[in-house]
Amino acid sequence: MKVKNYLEISPKLSSSGQPASKDFELIAEHGYQVVINLSMPDSKSALTNEGYLVTLTGMTYIHIPVAFDAPELSHLIAFFDAMEAFSAKKVWVHCALNYRASAFLYLYSRLLKRKSKEDSEKYIYPHWEPNDTWSGFIERCEAELL
After folding, report:
1. Which of 33, 38, 65, 133 could join 100 in a cystine, given CB atoms 3.0 to 4.6 angstroms apart?
2. Cα distance between residue 56 and residue 49, in whole Å
3. Strand 13-16 versus strand 7-10 pairing type
């Protein structure tokens, strides 16, 4: 798939940066049933009609806006709830560049699925090095919730 910073994590889970309008049809054609968007609605790459485009394909759309410089535990809990609610479905998680998505998926693997750090690292887009905000957020969540 040619979506920015695409990462196939498993046959039922992928992540990416912001898909283009035309990409949602391809995502649906590949069997995805749910799209979870972690981008802010005012992100420069955001699509104002993304929810419409996703639901037009028959997929379910979940939007959990997470400020890149201020992730909160409440965002992570909402994400965990969505992932658990759709655990039987094929899910695509995205944000602007697959950085927020990577961090949240890593934490989902570590904290909810109780996988090892090594196994959970495959959920992180390999070309991303978390900045202080995100490495601190990950460490705090692991310390508080693991």
Report:
1. 38
2. 11
3. antiparallel
